[in-house]
Amino acid sequence: MLRPVKKADSSTKKARFTIRAQELSELSDASLAAAVGPSSQEALAEVYRRHSGAVHGLARRILRDEALAEEITQEVFLRLWNNPEKYDAERGSLRSFLLAHTHGRSVDLIRSESARRTREEKDAQLVPRAEQNIEEQVWDMALATQVQEALTGLAEGERRAIELAYFGGHTYREVAEMLGQPEGTVKSRIRSGLRRLRLSLTAAGVSDT
Amino acid sequence: MHDQLNIEELLGAYALDAVDDGEESLVEQHLAECSLCRIEAEEHRRVAAMLVGESVQPPVRVWNQILEEISGAAPDTDIAPVVPIDSKRRNISMRSLGWVAAAVVLALSAAVLTQASRIGDLNSRLTTQDKQFATLAATRQQEPLQQAVAAALTNPGSQVANLTAEGASGAMLIVVLPDGTGYVFQSTLEPLPEDATYQLWAVVDDKVISAGVLGNRPEVVPFHIDPQGLQGLVITREVAGGVPQSAADPVVAWFKA
């Protein structure tokens, strides 16, 4: 039987691309990361669509500099493009993989930048940020309640130590100095705070995917 | 020196990148051998990822630079260029388009033909900077609609149209997402009196369809169209409330390359 043959005009091509884009949007992060490679810019675009806001938001928050944050955002996605095999789905979500890289690189930058900034300047910048409640900064409004509850379950010392280390980009030694507490105490508080958070969030059914 | 117990104590700080370089190496050596500690460090990282602050869409130039880097060429998801409509509209029948396209052609073709070099300039000026500016402008304001626009502008599949006309004092920027959701987001058209409105028309599959009444001083206005067959967008000035069919001349227009 003869079937009508549609000419492969631009609208057909567009339709094909749309179908492909729809398929990509349905893939899990793990499958998507596996699809990122030399011939799949669309897969990278989908990863970027899903996670660039969190990556850029974190870089901006740590660096407080839009241009540097853009550099980091670009670098994080290029690294995924160049070395997709570095992401191991068994070891966590793509989101936390990308954010860990974002955090590490942002902290590297802030520490190298700090060599030419005065300590006073850094501390002056830190004060208002240290007063911010991380409860108000949760990444997803849908999870706000659970994350907020988990955070309020932390001791004040744990919460401040985590905040200064994670968002301030400080080492635990620097945090100890800032808070006037022994290094060992701060080190333990960061660990116990993170554990407590994990337990609360798991109990509340929150995952990082 | 750190013993195993001390290294375990460092796992939280390590996961937050809050150890110094020497300690980092020690922890990593230990993690290579100890799966329990490796799992703990990974869990700490996952928790940290959940505490990330608000999402901030990066400006569209970031994606463009990534594309440039990986393809070694200028990205093709950049702004759709403004093109002379007489040469690029050959697939669109004047008759099937009806009056709007005809009016667009009448109003714009001559000017486009005689001002080809100017349009070339416009093309070159209509670079990522327009998108960047618009993204930044939209991001600065916190209203959900503006955030939606900022997100739409950074969606690599979005089309951005700059509606212009020779002789018109203003222009209008429109972004259309792959699903057909669109936003008028930056207008420099002059405000109209209360009894008038701007109206948006989409040229889809050779038909002219009203895509929405934009009001007399449009700021950010959402609309929805069929993105598949989108050939052009036209703005007219109408009486307040809009009209089902228009007899007005286009104020500004954009046609797809």
What would you note in describing this structure?
The complex is a heterodimer of chains A (209) and B (257). Chain A is an all-alpha fold and 209 residues long. Chain A has two domains: 14-116, Rna Polymerase Sigma Factor, Chain: A (Orthogonal Bundle), CATH 1.10.1740.10; 118-209, Arc Repressor Mutant, subunit A (Orthogonal Bundle). Helix content of chain A is 70%, strand content 0%. In chain A, helix 3 packs antiparallel against helix 4 (66-82), helix 3 (41-63) crosses helix 5 (94-114) and helix 9 (172-179) crosses helix 10 (183-203). Chain A is globular, with a radius of gyration of 21 Å. Chain B has 257 residues and is an alpha+beta fold. Classes of the chains: A mainly alpha (209), B alpha+beta (257).
Give the helix/strand class of chain B.
alpha+beta
Largest interface by Cβ-Cβ < 8 Å: A-B, 69 and 46 residues
Reading the helices and strands of chain A in chain order gives HHHHHHHHHH
Radius of gyration of chain B: 26 Å
What is the typical, i.e. mean, pLDDT of chain B?
Answer: 72
CATH class type of the largest domain in chain A: Mainly Alpha
Number of beta strands of chain B: 8
Which helices and strands appear, and what pairs or packs with what?
The complex is a heterodimer of chains A (209) and B (257).
Chain A: H1 10-26, H2 29-35, H3 41-63, H4 66-82, H5 94-114, H6 119-131, H7 144-152, H8 156-166, H9 172-179, H10 183-203
Chain B: H1 4-9, H2 11-15, H3 21-33, H4 35-50, H5 60-71, H6 85-88, H7 94-97, H8 99-114, H9 116-125, H10 128-140, H11 144-154, E1 159-163, E2 172-176, E3 181-187, E4 196-204, E5 207-215, E6 221-224, E7 230-239, E8 250-255
Antiparallel strand pairs in B: 1-2, 2-3, 3-6, 4-5, 4-7, 7-8
Helix pairs in contact in B: 3-4, 10-11
